[in-house]
Design goal:
It contains 14 helices and 21 strands. The chain is α+β, with helices and mostly antiparallel strands. A hairpin with a 4-residue loop joins strand 3 and strand 4. Helix 13 packs antiparallel against helix 14.
Amino acid sequence: MLIFAQHDLVKNPPYCNMHLISCRNVLIYMAPALQAKVYAMLLFGLKTNGYLYLGTSESPLTIMDSLEEVNKKWRIYKSLKNKRSATFETFSLPELLDVRRSGSYNREDTVKHMTNLMTDNVNTVLAESMNYLAICVDQENTVLKSYGNTAKYLVQQNFNNNLIELLPKPLAVAYNALSKEVLKTDVTTNVKGIMVKQNNTAMAVNLSVSPLLLDSGHKGFVAVFNDETSLSSKKENYPVFDEKEYHTKYTDTLEEELKKVKSELVDAYEKLETSNENMQSFNEELISSNEEMQSTNEEMQSVNEELHTINADYQLKNKELLETNDDLNNYFRSNINGQLFIDNEMKLMKFSPGAVKHINLLDTDIGRPITHISTNIKFETIIADTKLVLEKGVVISKEIEAENGKWYQIMIMPYIQATHRNKGAIITFNDITELNQTQTELKRKNQSLLRINADLDHFIHAASHDLLAPLGNIEASINILNEELPQKEVAVSEFLGVINNSIRTFRSLINDIATIAKVESDMIVTEEVNLNEIIDNIEWSLRNEMAEAKIKIVRNLEIPSIQFSKKNMRSILFNLISNAIKFRSKKSPMITVSTFNEGDYCVLTVEDNGKGIPKESHDKIFEMYGRLHQDIEGSGIGLYLAKKIVNAAEGSIRVESEPDKGTKFIIRLTNQIHKVL
């Protein structure tokens, strides 16, 4: 009643006129393209009104228009088509048993492995041919390797490696005739005087074709091209190219190839007839292979062993799952802050033991809506916030006070599955009572420091004012003495001069103390500073000095405005520009102010061509009273204040200078401070 036969659904033709085909849980292991091919084969084999029985996870969508669904659950279908035709996509022809394939070689492998042998042969031929353009091809005229300038003799074509198609017409005719002659005689042949127009230039080309032995004993050619300008004495013996003669040879070659193609076509027809006969006997051979199907039992045993292996893998995965579950349970027990897991219906899925002190929970509460559970915290919006997280997928964080006076940070975030779907929400409780207390203490201490700082500022200003008043009285008294003192009392006059200098120094120190205190209070005040406006103001303030020195300020402001303290920025630029005027050289003075972006920084530079600063003094100028030229008027705190202001703004200032080559101050401010407009 039954016939068993080995059958390959992919390669072998289908059985015909089948009343029932049961193919269950086989196609699920195949790719969609292969499934479509097998479905087409099964449909071809079904008799009209025959039944197709598939697995529960399989669906014949590609042939559904030819089937009627009998039972959707059990995947039973009935064939509707009366006639159907087989296509090449349905099944493949078997290999012909009586046709022997001719030997062939892989061209890519030839190119890869013939390098050493071919290089020796080609180098010999190129040495004989003056090493112009040599092209190695196989017997089908496919280019394997070339040496020389191909643009001079070949037609440039993309995606083409056939030498005849790459040659201009005259060269193609000559090469075709010479290559056929070399193939017959295995002797190098030559020709000269082939007129070719290439790249809008007419030239007479010489051609030499030599035999070449490729890998695995296959033959090829070496074609050598050169023009008449490089003709040597040896090439004077080349025969002259006769276009008519070579066209005749080209025609004869085409006729021979046509005869060969006709002969091969006759052979192909004979092979096709043989194939048809083999197809007719194929079914008989399948019937005779029933005995071989007895080995199926052994294969089934192998499948059974594979099932045992799969079962062992599942047991291992189950063990890993149990271990992971244990890890999660221990994590929940160790989480002292507390966590709640809520599903999309606002029902409690799971909670950690630490959550019990925040919400009155029991194990029996799992599955209950959290709206039915009371809490120990002052968080009236917990339900509304949880619903918002479920709807929008956002994260909500709030600081809430508990009934026992402690503070908690409550964070509600979506519960995301591996498929990136929102399955619910997670409510996390973090005790921040100690953090709040620390913040409160820091705030209190900060207010105290601000108050102390304000008192210190008041003291400095008051002290400066109080010191200046008696100092002014002393200075006025000494001036009166200077006016009334006879000129002849030289010793007393010199003594009063020393006192006057000391008083001026004392006044300068008091002014410096007030200036530093004022800078400290202005450091945290920032605003939008227009650099052009600042420089205009400085030019007006220093107009007399600039006119005397004949100095003009050049501006290269890629960033015209920055966020900074306006007073402090003016103080920095005023100090740098006034120093450039003071320490100018005998050369024509020039001051350049530039701003530009450099990565995450805004860079401000002030450059002059003045006296310059020795390298060993670069750090000293930024020290308090770090003056290098005592003969020039100044207090010595200008650059100290500039560095103090820039450092307080989390920036940096440095100097590049050499004696008699000018000075360049470079200020770098972070992008958190400056703003490009």
